[in-house]
Amino acid sequence: MIPAGTLVLRTLLNVARQRDGLNEAGCRLVLEYLASAQGVEAVLQRRLAAIGFSENQFSVLVALYALDPAASTPADLAHHAGTTRSAMTALLDHLEVRGLLARQRDTRDRRLVYVQLTPAGQTAANTALMDYLRAANELADLVAPADQAALLQASTQFQAAANRISSANASATVP
């Protein structure tokens, strides 16, 4: 994150203004948008930390909450939570120690493990979801309703642009 008002931000914008092929206003838009997004993320992460969850732990709880009462495999949870399989093991260990989930081996194929929320996990997931969404709602309430639609449209455009650039860069590096 490049905080607003810093020497780094001022330097980047000065270079954008001075160099051919760069648009200072466009660079400012992206950098300010990024700083805003990171500020919003920090608010939400602090809310999760206050109730004892990291963002990744919260993602696992939300995935299990969405799938409940069905069980899931750690590999599927990693996909749903946007993390790696190797990181998922540590996340599940932590949540299991807290009594929020249970693991059970498949009786026919001992290599398979299924994960499911416990009753305490269902309660914790619901509480965490509500706290997280209340924080998101508090942030949104500070933005005028007319501006909310424009921000949502801009977010959609930034995401589409980022996806296009990522796809183009990935295509360019594949031999």
In short:
The chain has 175 residues and is mainly α. It has helices at 7-18, 24-50, 55-67, 74-81, 85-97, 119-141, 145-173, and strands at 101-105, 113-117.
Describe this entry's structure for a reader:
With 175 residues, this protein is mainly alpha-helical. It has two domains: 1-50; 55-128, Winged helix-like DNA-binding domain superfamily/Winged helix DNA-binding domain (Arc Repressor Mutant, subunit A), CATH 1.10.10.10. Helix content is 71%, strand content 6%. A two-stranded antiparallel sheet has the order 1-2. Helix 3 crosses helix 4 (74-81) and helix 3 (55-67) packs across helix 6. The chain is elongated, with a radius of gyration of 21 Å. The chain starts with 6 loop residues before the first helix and ends with a helix. The model has no long low-confidence stretch (mean pLDDT 92).
List the defining traits of the structure above:
elongated, Arc Repressor Mutant, subunit A, 175 residues, 2 domains, mainly alpha
Report, as a whole number of angstroms, the end-to-end distance: 32 Å
SS summary, helix count? 7
Per CATH, the superfamily of the largest domain is Winged helix-like DNA-binding domain superfamily/Winged helix DNA-binding domain
Strand percentage lies at: 5-15%
Order of helices and strands: HHHHHEEHH
If you compute it from the alpha carbons, what radius of gyration comes out, rounded to the nearest whole angstrom? Answer: 21 Å
Question: What is the CATH-assigned architecture of the largest domain?
Answer: Orthogonal Bundle
Helix content: over 70%
Derived structural class? mainly alpha
What is the strand tally? 2
Q: CATH class of the largest domain, anyone?
A: Mainly Alpha
Largest sheet: 2 strands, antiparallel
